[in-house]
Amino acid sequence: MESLLDTLGLSQSVQLLSLSPPGWGGNLLRGLANSLQIALGAFGFGLLIGLFGAYGKLYGGPILRDLLAIYTTVIRAVPELVLILILYYVGSDLINQAALAMGYGRVEISGVVAGIWVLGIVQGAYSTEVLRGAIQAIPPGQLEAARAFGMPPLMTLRRVTIPAMMSFATPGLANLWLIATKDTALLAIVGFSELTLETRQAAGSTRAYFTFFLAAGALYLIVTLFSGALFARIEKWARRGQPSLKGGTK
Amino acid sequence: MTAQTRQTDAPAPAETAILVEDLHKSFGTLEVLKGVSLSARKGDVVAIIGGSGSGKSTLLRCINFLETPTSGRIVVAGEEIAMRADGSPANRRQIERIRTRLGMVFQAFNLWTHRTLLENVIEVPVYVLKTPRAEAISRARVLLDRVGLADKADTFPAFLSGGQQQRAAIARALAVDPSVMLFDEPTSALDPELVGEVLTVIRDLAAEGRTMLLVTHEMKFAREVANHVVYLFEGQIEEQGPPDQLFGAPKSARLKQFLQTVG
């Protein structure tokens, strides 16, 4: 094995990527864990915003609808990197001012929380539109039946609207999740040690740019492949009541 | 069979299942219902007939407030539905409770496509009425058996014919043991060869004394199962009475013409 790596000239790369120091593999995996944690949190927070946003846009009053239109337009118009800078610095500034006003000292803002907050707001704008479209795609009779049988609104949301829209929403949400995993890389700019920043540090310290960025790319690819398989299963489940487009039954 | 109660302030008699008084409904400037009054006693089968745009479906949908009436008075099983001045229900909980007493069957079935037939039938009993799940399931199996779908309990609606879906929808409506069943053109979306199986189920329900309001285009069927027929024309009751009288010796010229066109 070792002789094979030697002949391929990869033994040095393997050493560099080893999980224990002096290898940097551990740092990369820690970065990946941070990235996934933020992506998961931001995606979930975004879904929550998206559900409220979609409901507000569909059933809200004129003022709420206007506010949501401003939210989705602005967020989707401004480059995400700029948004991250704005939301991160404005957000932490506001929190610190509030803390000072209430007589506390400066607050140290956790990178994970800040990342989730910032990316969640970005994701929420896209989620709002994905979910709004999915809710509108539900045949109106499904919701009318719920109403006709005396289902209260929140129960209708849980028992009919969400399950019925899942098959329409899953492809869009899968996209959003993949975007979330990669948007975490943008947090490197505010100094949060996710996968990309860890990679840059490892590469900078060792001058082995190619090795580390290739390794990071492979990690992102693995995440994408796993996500794809997971979302395929979710979509299959969400479409369980629908005949396949390929024909045949079940 | 059907008595018109005209005194607005008198309480509805206990045996009156549905009482509708002076119901008006406008969509914008278009007045679809222009003061309709009708009542059904327990066990009555009232057929509502009329041309397209006569307001018959709107009348049915106003009774459970799927459409908000513009004005009027609706009493279900002795309980008047509280309305605001604009006709909207004043009390959400009241209207939700009353809706569980009105088993609605739609033209387009409207089964929940992400749930199997059994799940469709137990949905309202389990989640809205809080019936224990085991009890709801055993009741649902009896109902599915009754409409001839016992072997389809675990099938999703999309894999069934329209007639089967509509029979399942009737089982779903029966699962709440409704005081009144509302049928909104239950066979209009079906292929002709599937109409019969659905009518058979409705006929059985009529025979066992279910109170029903039935909006239909099936004149022969209406004559056979209903004990009172209402003919709507442009949002008003043009003529009503026992089926033999209405179909056999219609007084109104419009009804005569309508019966000729629909054959």
Automatic annotation (TrEMBL), chain A:
Q: Does the keyword Cell inner membrane apply?
A: yes
**What membrane topology does the annotation report for this chain?**
Multi-pass membrane protein
Q: Which UniProt keywords apply?
A: Cell inner membrane, Cell membrane, Membrane, Transmembrane, Transmembrane helix, Transport
Domain named ABC transmembrane type-1 is located at 32-231
Q: InterPro entries under this entry?
A: AA_ABC_transptr_permease_3TM, ABC_transp_permease_HisMQ, MetI-like, MetI-like_sf
- Please give the start and end residues of each transmembrane region: 36-55, 67-89, 109-126, 208-232
Does this UniProt record's set of keywords contain Acetylation?
A: no
Pfam families in the record? BPD_transp_1
What is an example of a GO molecular function annotated in this UniProt entry? transmembrane transporter activity
Q: What family, per the record?
A: Belongs to the binding-protein-dependent transport system permease family. HisMQ subfamily.
Name used for this protein in its record: Amino acid ABC transporter membrane protein 1, PAAT family
Query: Which species is this UniProt entry from?
Result: Roseovarius lutimaris
Automatic annotation (TrEMBL), chain B:
Tell me the CDD domains matching this sequence.
ABC_HisP_GlnQ (cd03262)
Query: Could you name the domain of life of the organism this protein comes from?
Result: Bacteria
Q: What is its main location?
A: membrane
Residue stretches in coiled coil: none
The molecular function GO annotations come to: ABC-type amino acid transporter activity; ATP binding; ATP hydrolysis activity
Question: What subcellular compartments does it reside in?
Answer: Cell membrane
Question: What region holds the ABC transporter domain?
Answer: 18-259
Q: Name one Pfam family in it.
A: ABC_tran
InterPro entries, per the entry: AAA+_ATPase, ABC_ATPase_HisP-typ, ABC_transporter-like_ATP-bd, ABC_transporter-like_CS, MetN_ABC_transporter-like, P-loop_NTPase
Q: What name does the UniProt record give this protein? A: Amino acid ABC transporter ATP-binding protein, PAAT family
Q: Which UniProt keywords apply?
A: ATP-binding, Cell membrane, Membrane, Nucleotide-binding, Transport
User: Hey, which family's this protein in?
Assistant: Belongs to the ABC transporter superfamily.
Alphabetical GO CC annotations of the entry are: plasma membrane
